[in-house]
């Protein structure tokens, strides 16, 4: 099968979850990402924690900044998690951030971008620099966002929170 725009036998687009190579079919890898952010002060010192799971393997990623906001750290966790993937994947991304989940699943961020980063209330959107990093990653990977209530006993969310808090505390 050939891709019409580039005439190659490799097809992958954001609408398709199967890669065709030399008429064989290879299923795309299914990865789980868990992400959380933490901030003291908002703005203030902040951190993020991420867990990636693929089959029986896990990887933790964390980082922080001395002067940031909780929403920035939530976005950074998602960006760092997706950026760690080495090839297009089908991702279930679990986070306790309604800001991240709703902005994407309800289409808000796409409208903000279309309107020069102006929201429906006529105010400028926040964290444009991070949204501009995240949106291309969402073109590469097929991402299903799952919201979980924070600090409610979800094992991976609690681990991500601990990673984020450790990073945040480095700046206090």
Largest sheet strand order: 5-4-3-6-7
Rounded mean pLDDT score: 89
Amount of helix: 25-40%
The CATH homologous superfamily? Ribonuclease H-like superfamily/Ribonuclease H
What name does CATH use for the topology? Nucleotidyltransferase, domain 5
Strand content is 25-35%
Distance between the termini: 56 Å
Give the helix/strand class.
alpha/beta
The CATH architecture: 2-Layer Sandwich
> What number of structural domains do the residues give?
1
Count the DSSP helices: 5
Name of the top-level CATH class = Alpha Beta
Describe the structure.
The radius of gyration is 17 Å and the shape is globular. Mean pLDDT is 89; it is low at 1-20. It is α/β, with parallel strands linked by helices. The strands form two sheets. Strands 5-4-3-6-7 form a five-stranded mixed beta sheet. Strands 1-2 form a two-stranded antiparallel sheet. It has five helices and seven strands. It starts with 17 loop residues before the first strand and ends with a helix. It has one domain (28-169): Nucleotidyltransferase, domain 5 (2-Layer Sandwich). The longest helix is centred in the C-terminal third of the chain and has 15 residues, at 155-169. Helix 1 runs parallel beside helix 4 (128-140). It has helices spanning 70-83, 98-105, 108-114, 128-140, 155-169, and strands at residues 18-21, 24-27, 30-40, 44-54, 57-68, 90-95, 142-147.
Features:
172 residues, Nucleotidyltransferase, domain 5, 5-stranded mixed beta sheet, two-stranded antiparallel ribbon, 7 strands, disordered N terminus
């Amino acid at each position: 099968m050939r891709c019409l725009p580039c005439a190659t036998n490799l097809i992958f687009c954001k609408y398709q979850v199967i890669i065709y190579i030399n008429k064989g079919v290879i299923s795309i890898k299914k990865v789980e990402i868990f992400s959380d952010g933490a901030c003291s002060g908002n703005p203030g010192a902040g951190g993020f924690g991420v867990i990636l799971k693929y089959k029986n393997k896990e990887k933790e990623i964390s980082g922080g900044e001395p002067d940031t906001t909780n929403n920035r750290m939530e976005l950074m966790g998602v960006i760092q998690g997706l950026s760690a993937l080495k090839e297009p994947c089908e991702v279930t991304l679990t986070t306790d951030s309604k800001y991240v989940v709703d902005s994407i699943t309800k289409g808000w961020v796409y409208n903000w971008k279309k309107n020069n980063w102006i929201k429906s209330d006529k105010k400028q959107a926040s964290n444009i620099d991070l949204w501009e990093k995240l949106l291309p990653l969402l073109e590469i990977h097929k991402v299903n966002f799952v919201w979980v209530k924070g600090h409610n006993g979800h094992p991976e969310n609690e681990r991500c929170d601990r990673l984020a808090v450790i990073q945040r505390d480095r700046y206090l």
